[in-house]
Every structure is written in C-alpha cells, then in structure tokens.
Amino acid sequence: MSDDHTAQTDSGDAWDAFCDAVKAAGKLVDSTHAPQDPQTRAEGYRYLSRMLRAGLESFVEGGDPRFPELRCPVHTTIKMGADNPDNYYQNTPVSPDYDYRIVGTRGSVHYLGFSTVINRYATGGGMKTDGFLDAAHLEVGANGEIEIIVSAEEHEGNWLRMGPETNAINVRQTFRDRTREIPADLRIERIGAESDRPPPLSPEKMDEALAGAARFLTNTTALFAGWAEGFVPTTNQVAPADQGFCQAIGGDPNIYYFHSAWKLADDEALVIEAPIIPDCETWNFVLQNWWMESLDFRYHTIHFNKHTAQYEADGSVKIIVSHHKPPHANWVETAGHRAGTLCWRWIGADEHPPVNARVVKFEDL
Question: How far apart are CA 69 and CA 280, in angstroms?
Fold first, then answer.
C-alpha cells in the first residue's frame, strides 16, 4: 500500500481534487460553441451528472479485471456518444494477463457482437477495437448455449482475441423489436481464479478510483462535445462520418455511420429520404440533443429502424422530423427541442448509399 495514497485519503486531498475536477467540468456547458438556450444548458448539466455516474460506476464500483462483471453502462438515464435506442450495451474491464469465459444463452435478439477494446476514454484517447466476434459466426448449442473463450492465445471453438493492450470487453445487442425479441443472457468469469472474493477497499484503490472517475468525466465529455461541434457545417444534412474516427472511439466494425447536426424553426420540418435500402442486418435513424444523447425514447418516438419504419411504394424510406405530427407514418418527434444532433447507421451492409435530407415548411408536407 502506498503511503502517498494513504496520506491523500486521510487528509481528504483525494476527495478535494475529485470535487475540483467535477466543478471544472461544468465549464463544458459554457462553451462558446454549445447552444446557450436554457434547455440545452439544463441538459448539459444533466449530461455531466450522467457522465459522472458512469465514471463512478466504472472506476469506484468496478474496474478490477480479476473480478469481471458484464454491466450495462449506457441506458435510458446514462447516454453518451450517439447511443442507439435499439441497443443493449454491456461491458467489463479485462486484462490480457488472464483468460476469461463468457457463457450464457443466445436468446433471439437479431444482432449480437462481442469486441475486445483498448478503452482510453478516461484519458481522452477514444476506444480502439482489438478483437471482434459476430454472433452470426458463433457455434451455438442445441438449446441456444454459448461459450466464448477470451484470451491472448488462440483457442479452439468460439474465441475472442485480446491484444497486449486490451483492457475491456464490449457487448452490443441490437434489436429489431424489443417487445418480441429475447436478449442474450450472458455472464463472464475469469478462468483459473484463485479466489472469488475481491480484496477489501484500500486507500490506494479509492484514490485511484476517484482520479479515474474525474478523468473520465473531463475527457469523455470533451471528446463528444468536440465531435458535436464538428457537425455544425453539415446542419440539416445526413452526412457520412469519418469512419476511421468512429472506429477509433468505439464504433462497431459492422456499422457505417452518418452524423450531423439539425436545427428547425417552429414552422419547419426535416424530410429525410433513403432512396436505396441495401441488403443489411438493419438500419436505424436516431434524433439526439446537442450533447449527442438520444432523445427520451421511453415517451417519444425518436428513432426508426429497418423493421419499425413504413416504406414507400418503390421500397425507399421517408422519415419526417418535426415539432408537430405530420401526415406521414414515420414521424420522429423533436420532443420539445429546436436543435441537436442526429445519426443514421447502415448495420451489416456491403454498400452504404447516401441518405438525403431537406428542410421544408411544415404546412407544405
């Protein structure tokens, strides 16, 4: 145990430094690039509180690769980086010093992907994928049983590779229809664990955990805020994103991303049209606020996918983003917002045709 960490904890300096970092993170809301209307500022402070919760869950309550646990870090009240309402996210810290086993049942969720990653969100470095395993290529038992070995050395059967810098596993489950599909039921264990009990909390662990949570809050919010600012030049378009950057911050290798900003007056609507739908696992469109959080899909229709949208007679898709209900089936509600960001995804597609967008007067719909 480090005397320095003990001193930091005993004196309260570790806590003071954490509180100072949380206070300093509030300057994000005052950015000259961020909209300064009352709603966006209020959501900015809520966003910081959510990111702080995510950081505390990751570093204070978790963070030990010797005792991994798949948990859901992004959900209805913690959102980040253009979260997908069709997804159920899970992750856990791991280390290439150990081997792991993921076991469970496949369920009926349409898309299931496993990634080993180098997660550097806490230092502002994004997230790089080391290994990837699509459930379409899994060996699955007669009753849906799954067993995956996660290791640095190649393994027979279902194997998920770890690299020398791997520090986490991400799991994405993507639903066509959450009301009908059964999610995969998964758990992870370290192979050859000499103990099933973590050691008691130490001053060193607490000091490092608070510092890690503070770095996560500061650097991750800055990363996504800078990304949102970069969308401004393509406002009210559905613009192809920098795919390399998307992958560098944790994007799924099977997804092609479009990201932009949007802004509508009270009497305007955004008409989004995908004239060509490629052969794909699915696609989806999501409306977000300025902080790249999906709008509240619990109470509003703010996204559509390949299976929930209605199609035009020629097989194309038209989506209307507007403040009021239009004479069209695929209405995405703005949920009281006047501006924000948006995302379109082609998932599991071999080609990525353009998606068009135009602003019209609502009365002209």
Answer: 32
Q: How many CB atoms lie within 10 A of CB 138?
A: 15
**What string of DSSP letters covers 82-142?**
S--TTEEEEEEE--TTS-EEEEEE--S-SEEEEEEEEE-GGGT--EEEEEEEEGGG----T
3-class secondary structure, 260: strand
Helices (H), 237-321: 243-248
32 residue type, one letter: T
**Segment-wise mean pLDDT, segments of 10 residues, the chain, 365 residues:** 72 94 96 92 98 96 93 96 96 97 96 93 82 92 96 96 96 92 97 84 93 94 92 97 89 93 98 98 96 97 97 98 97 98 96 98 97
Cβ atoms of 44 and 34 closer than 8 Å = yes
Give the residue among 22, 33, 29, 31 at the shortest CA–CA distance from 45.
29
Where b means 16+ CB within 10 Å and e means fewer, 27-66 reads: ebbeeeebbeeeebeebbeebbebbbebbbbbbbebbebe
Q: Taking the complete model, does pTM exceed 0.85, yes or no?
A: yes
Instruction: Yes or no: say if 328 and 365 are a contact pair by the CB < 8 Å rule.
Output: yes
> Quick one: tokens of 119?
């997660």
CA distances from 135 to 10, 145, 171, 183 (A): 48, 12, 11, 13
Q: Residues near 201 by Cβ (< 8 Å), separated by ≥ 6?
A: none
Q: What is the pLDDT of residue 194?
A: 75
| Strand pairing class (127-134; 145-151) | unpaired
| Residue indicated by tokens 């204070």 | 60
- In this prediction, residue 322 carries a pLDDT of 98
The Cα–Cα gap between 285 and 206 comes to 41
